Amino acid sequence: MIVALHVATGAAAGAASGSRVAATLLGPILHLAGDRLPHQDIGSRRFETSSGLASLFLLAARRGPLDPATLGAGASSAPDLEHVLPFLRPGGHKLFHGRRGWHRSGRFPTDLQLLLAGMILGALVAPRNRAV
Ligand SMILES: [Zn+2]
User: Fold this and answer.
1) Long-range pairs, 44-47, Cβ under 8 A, ≥24
2) How far does the centroid of ligand 1 lie from the alpha carbon of residue 57, in Å?
3) 52 CA distance to ligand 1 centroid (A)?
4) How many whole angstroms from 2 Cα to the centroid of ligand 1?
5) Ligand 1 centroid to 126 CA: how many Å?
6) Which candidate, 84, 93, 102, places its Cα nearest to that of 29?
7) For residue 2, which phi and psi values (nearest 5 degrees)?
8) Digitized pLDDT (tens) for each residue of the chain, 132 residues in all
9) How far is the CA of 11 from the centre of ligand 1 (A)?
10) In 3D, which of 55, 41, 114, 112 has the Cα closest to residue 83?
């Protein structure tokens, strides 16, 4: 699943939980659940990295780096770091995306994933000007 949507779903879960601990613990589980949905992936590592980082920075800037949404976003996208950081693959084996893995390729198109990520992130960083 594309990184931006991992970031967005982690942020949404974190915001909903309202708890930093819950957000951090839920993140990797959400990552596995997301990758488990049969989905298409974006082949460009540069796009994946930059869109993921941009989403994270946006959340941190608008909600604060320690907001549950920001922490959830980081925790949920962190498993994809093993694609780019070799020291996260002990013995060369990926923990979250290995052979035993959860990862499923399928029909969930990348443009829909991007759209969803944008909608979720947009809602989470929108100015909160309504009294709740
Ligand atoms: Zn993944």
Assistant:
1) 45/83, 45/84
2) 19
3) 12
4) 8
5) 27
6) 102
7) -65, 150
8) 999 999 999 999 999 999 999 999 999 999 999 999 999 999 999 999 999 999 999 999 999 999 999 999 999 999 999 999 999 998 888 888 887 667 889 999 999 999 999 999 999 999 876 555
9) 16
10) 41
What pLDDT is attached to residue 34?
A: 95
Rounded to the nearest angstrom, the distance between the alpha carbon of 128 and the centre of ligand 1 is 31
Query: In angstroms, what is the span from residue 92 Cα to ligand 1's centroid?
Result: 16
Q: How many residues does the chain have?
A: 132
For residue 80, the CA-to-ligand 1 centroid distance in Å is 5
Which residues, listed in sequence order, are joined to residue 108 by a DSSP beta bridge?
39
User: What is the per-residue DSSP string for the chain?
Assistant: --HHHHHHHHHHHHHHH--HHHHHHHHHHHHHHHHHS-B-----HHHHHHHHHHHHHHHHHHH-TTSHHHHHHHHHHGGGGGGT-GGGSGGG--SSSSTT----B-SB-HHHHHHHHHHHHHHHHS---S--
